[in-house]
């Protein structure tokens, strides 16, 4: 039953009066919102899709294998840092363009400005012809070949890798499978323990873990077998439903609130461009991701197999920096921090970023906390590796 | 075969349903003719031989089975407002055509019958399309039910949101200069309820059934597309997938051999 509406003096308001007031108020607010929306619409009317540029930092393709390309960014600093090259490895659920969304919010530019020799893996655009590619292909063959290439360019010396989200899981697996390739392993928003601390998830945290956990192996297989791939539209819809109100209001209330503010609108449109460009995930790799990792949690159990060998995360020999987002609604903090259990504490550091999953890369705050923290860690690790000067003992 | 168990002899039951449905439909046609006859008295009396006292209740009962809100008065001139009669009759006819309006009244019984047909023994040269049609119909019913269940879960969430907001806000509050605060409170209440709903077992089960049933329909579409491809001498999806898999495995073999060769050369 509807509660009785009362005025300021506590007197009940009759239904007709209530309805009249509600209509008047609605019209008034609609007009106000309309005015704001007109400003935003005015901007949308002027701007063209080609004006929304992302990932503009120049780079050359230096290595290719099947559809996978390895790009090397052109240096932006006059002096190259005395740090082993770094390879950025993004996942297959989105594009690596996230790390270079715009000039003033670009992880890539921040690292280049510090003189770091920077590479990025571009997985290309998987189609049904790639549906049988699995983790053996993506981790050992593709990523492994890219890393081997950079090691070779680096004088057959180990290199750094920076893995992001699913790409972080790939990087972690390769670091455990072939530890000799790596001087350092940096991760951001990376799932390791796919179940996490479910008892202590905050509201809105860990939906993916719960939802996928609620599916049976047959459910997952049915989806993959039917589509061949895990369609980008499907994963996009699932990601949108993780934040229902944000997804429902971004094109109405959200746009109206921007009131045509150009920098805000451009930021929004760049992000939209990135979201819209969501590739299909190769089917067999998706099957492993959902069944073996999300459902069965085989990686932390030491039962996940790569090229027929069970992966042991304790095999990771290089220093590790693990960056997680404290309000991450996609990868719970406990899922990322679980790596600490496998790496000796002297080799392990964490940075907790006070923001969400994507905010780690695109927020203004992240440019200092995440990019700055990553550069500091690289410099520190490099310093630790240098042989210390011998001090002569006094006679 | 009077003592059949639930789900047994599904084909028989299907035929029985169709038979009764057809019977009722023809009776309804007769009734419709009678009504038209009354409206246009000069027209020949086709239905003079029909037993109206028996057919009308039967027709009405049949229609009400599928559309409980059906108002037979709209055809018998008992309603006073003509425009209202047209609207009601139009809506009722459209409702008849909307599967969501009738599948929900007997889905389980129908589902069991359809499943028993689909699972039943198959003949080499008889009734194969019927088996497939039964399976397709069952899948459509499952999807309709899943969508309806999901809709209910979400509707309940919005009702709770409204209740939560209504407890704390009145029209007087909304008239305050800072209506933005009221908007934020509404969004916050909605966010709270939707997130709570999305972590509930009820939501997750509905979501699982939606994924499963919609994927089954997609798989059925694939089968139809394959049948069409075969009919026109075109390669099917399955054939393409087989080919892709073969190429994938060959490339893997080739890479393995190349590595072994490189390794041997290295030694």
Overview of this protein structure:
The complex is a heterodimer of chains A (395) and B (267). With 395 residues, chain A is an alpha/beta fold. In chain A, 44% of the residues lie in helices and 15% in strands. Chain A has helices at 15-46, 107-113, 135-153, 166-177, 207-214, 217-227, 232-242, 244-258, 262-276, 283-295, 333-337, 359-362, 364-385; strands at residues 59-65, 68-73, 86-89, 100-102, 105-106, 118-122, 159-164, 182-188, 229-230, 281-282, 305-306, 309-310, 320-325, 348-353. In chain A, strand 4 (100-102) and strand 5 (105-106) form a beta hairpin. In chain A, helix 1 (15-46) packs across helix 8 and helix 6 (217-227) packs antiparallel against helix 10. Chain A is globular, with a radius of gyration of 24 Å. Chain A starts with 14 loop residues before the first helix and ends in a 10-residue tail after the last helix. The model of chain A has no long low-confidence stretch (mean pLDDT 92). Chain B is an all-alpha fold and 267 residues long. Chain B folds into three domains: 10-118, no CATH class; 126-234; 243-267. Chain B is built from eleven helices and no strands. Chain B has helices spanning 10-39, 52-66, 73-76, 82-97, 99-103, 107-119, 128-168, 171-174, 179-198, 201-231, 237-266. Chain B is flat and about 100 Å long. Chain B starts with 9 loop residues before the first helix and ends with a helix. Residues 1-7 of chain B have low confidence and may be disordered. The A-B interface holds A 2-3, 5-8, 13, 18, 21-22, 25, 29, 128-129, 131-133, 141, 203-204, 207, 210-211, 214-215, 219, 222-223, 225-228, 241, 244-245, 249, 253 and B 166-167, 170-172, 174-175, 179, 183, 187, 190-192, 194-196, 198-199, 204-205, 207-208, 211-212, 215-216, 218-219, 222, 237, 240-241, 244-245, 248-249, 255.
